[in-house]
Here is the input.
Amino acid sequence: MKRALLLFSLMTLAGCPEDVPVPPPPLVKVKVTVAQLSGIGGQVTLTREGKTAPAVAGPLHEGDVLETGDDGHALLSSQGREVELLENSRFRVGATLADLDLSLGELLFEELDGGEFSTSAGAARAGAGSRVKLQARDGGTSFEVDMGTLELFDLADGGSNTVKAGERFVVGVGVLSLEDLPTAPTAPEVVKPKVKLTPRGTVMLKPKSGPNARLAAEGKELEEPGTFAVDKNGQLRAELEGTTVEFEGASKGSLEPGSGDPRMGVTLAAGAARLFLKAGESVLLGGKKPLTVRAKVTSTLLVTSTKAGPRVEVLGGETEVALPGGLPRKLQASEVATPRGKGFDTGRKGAPILTLPAGKNTRVYWGRAGDVALTFPSGDGVMEVSSDPQFQNLLVSAQGSDLVVVPAPLKGSLSWRRQGAEETSGARFERDENASAMSAKSDTVAETGLKSTVYFQSAVPTLTFTFPLKEGAASWRFRVYSVADLKTPLVDRRVNENRTVVDSGALREGSYVWSAVAQDKSGVEAPGGRMNKMDIVFDNSVTRLVLSSPRDGERASTATGVAPLGSRLSLNGKSVPLDAAGRFSVPLGNASVLVFKLVSKEGAESQWVRRLGR
Here is the structure.
């Protein structure tokens, strides 16, 4: 057989010409980065391979199309060249950033070293350090030189020209002096912006030129510096285009509109504020060590007043903080910075207590509030977190990947989504009344001559035994026996009234008999005492998880409790075995935070959190 295979192989080789070329492997086309996109503000979309989505910072490739809305702008940069796309414009990325394929709107381009550009109106050469505005409108194409020079050649009309600073060239018309343009606007008057103030509850406001008074419910526009004080149950919102500051209850401080950059100054004397900033927007945080916060992308920050100065925590997005005359310090989500000396004390928040999934509504029961991680569906849209499902009270609005860590309430709700998405996720937080102490209900067992049955779910309840009054009775001798041992009483006591209480935990699941025999003043028992039967039976009709142990903050090595029948239970991601009645007892190991996840028969999820003592 081996010789046959060898012969076949030789024949095959002999029949194949030696010079048959071997086809080369297929070429894989690698996308080349033409420029980097940054400085995105307002409405900017990117169309790539036929798909349009909100633009995000990152690489641009040949054929990409950028479009800006009424308030949109974006910055493209590559090897010393910068192109700034202004509002209501459409730009197609060419093979290099020297290809200025602007079909609508206007852009600014800068050339540090001097170089050539191509436009729809012809080729151009910018001098070193030149800055030029290119406009494409229905009436044609124009070049306006702000700094340096621009030489135009190979124009559609066959001509060429050199345009200097302060001049504009319109294709087909010629060089026009900016001073001679009939439509040239005068320099705008510098006007401080107006900060729109909206109160909730009681807010006191003292403008610089007015008296201290309660801010009306409809709010007002602030054009000058002013101080404020927010009631502990109130809130104050201050808004400028692209910037919103929400002062929490019991906050005090001052506000000042500014004509430069930043356009708003905020000083916190007490309390906390939440900052919502769009890309490029900034706020000056005043105090002993004022600092400027600037958003690189849409971001949300929590600012708290401290003795050292404002403490800045990034809830979502990416920002920069800078002290006067100092270099900016980048801060990302979950990072914290506080001024210290000539710089900052920075750090990162600890790990969240638990992570909640996207696309579900989850219930969380806990004894203490803490930070939770909220997961989002994959995508590029802005992440939003709100305390209500209608997203009227936003807590976070930030550009990011798929995770946000936020402080969650002890009791309340959180909803989260990608901005504009129909699908939302939610969580309802409840105070776990059993987190601090396990309390069993109280049942009454009366002497009737019939068997009594006591049902329990988490722990045998406190039992109150009652028995009838008897003439001449000064006291009663009360005894409880297990059916398995009628000689030794489990409870044996003398009581002075016709009732007595046996505390929770003194008796276990099982069958018992009990009696209460009347006694006279001398302690002589009256004849005719009656033995009563009683069963204590475990009954699993619970509809939620019952954790008998551990309590929150307790040191423990074992977790015990009861889960509803038909449900599934896990602890820190590992399945917990349940007996036929839904009871469990599992070792805890070295875990310091316990997260129990219960999945009901219907698929609903709930989570219980216990933090152990150290």
About this structure: The chain has five domains: 33-180, 195-348, 354-431, 442-538, 546-611. Residues 546-611 form one domain.
